[in-house]
Known about the structure:
The complex is a heterodimer of chains A (132) and B (206). By secondary structure, chain A is an alpha/beta fold. Chain A has one domain: Rossmann fold. In chain A, 46% of the residues lie in helices and 18% in strands. Chain A contains five helices and five strands, in the order E-H-E-H-E-H-E-H-E-H. The radius of gyration of chain A is 13 Å and the shape is globular. Chain B is mainly α and 206 residues long. Chain B has five helices and no strands. The chains are: A alpha/beta (132), B mainly alpha (206). At the A-B interface, helix 1 of A face helix 1, helix 2 and helix 3 of B.
Amino acid sequence: MIDTSLKVLVVDDMSTMRRILKNVLKQIGFSDLTEAENGQDALNKLKTGGFGLVVSDWNMPVMQGIELLRAVRADPELKHLPFLMVTAEAQKENIIEAVQAGVSNYVVKPFTAEALQEKLEKIFAKTQPANA
Amino acid sequence: MLVDRDIDTNELETQEEDHSINKELSEFTKYVEMITRTIRDMESPVATTSDQLPQATAHLNDLAKMTEEGTHRVLTLTEAIETNRGVIHAAFEHLKGKLGGEHAADVEKVVELLKADERRLMDIHVALSFQDLVAQRVAKLVTILNEVQHKLLKLVVIFGIKQKKDGAQAKDGGRANEMLRQLESSKKTALEQDLVDDILSEFGCA
Lengths: 132, 206
């Protein structure tokens, strides 16, 4: 079951995508949503603490989503954060790279609300037994 | 006699070598002439294209910006509809609790329709993610065009190609130039609807 009480960080350089993702996440039940427009901005916000989920694009200026993922996994305070990649970069190599970097799940753009919800359910199904 | 014959043979070989070198030089000269002619033929298209590319890039960036603005407008409207739908849904749920029997069943049907609309509204939101894909592809095209422009400029500089004036460009640029001219003109001269309305009202047509 998705823990909708968690604070979510939505990372995308496109303002339209941040808005769309926030609307879908609100519909799923999340209410504490914060935006970041690139990996560096996201990392700075994550370091302030309190986040329970990251939903990030791959292709962004300043710091790409994959670099953000590596930085998150390398940080002892952040390394356990569920990290969902939502991206148009869907070559086999991209997916392998993301998995090797420690991505929790991967949604390909264009996506549906159901696909996003299904991936989040899978992420939380994996994390909950460990936390229990 | 033997020495004379040797000298004759050497002269013959030297003459053959000279002939061969002359032939090669002649072919090389022809090749250089051909290259020069090709470069001369290339000058005009290269100059025109290097002029057109920055404009084409700017229009592509405008395209991405326009789709972004349009998407935000649609999102604003659908978010407003969603807010209203939520209020109506809550009101009907409240009403359903107060009513009983047949009336409650009728209200339930309305609630079901509202739930179906909630899903449709979400589908509209998600479908708008096409804009992000458009913007990403435009960004990649702009990168390619910038690279091509950079290489063309190198050619322009290396071969000392002169940039032509506007009049000459229109002739050389052909259809591409005309399309760019139209795009540029629509950008500069197209009026916002409210300005058009002001003008229409001045003429009593609004």
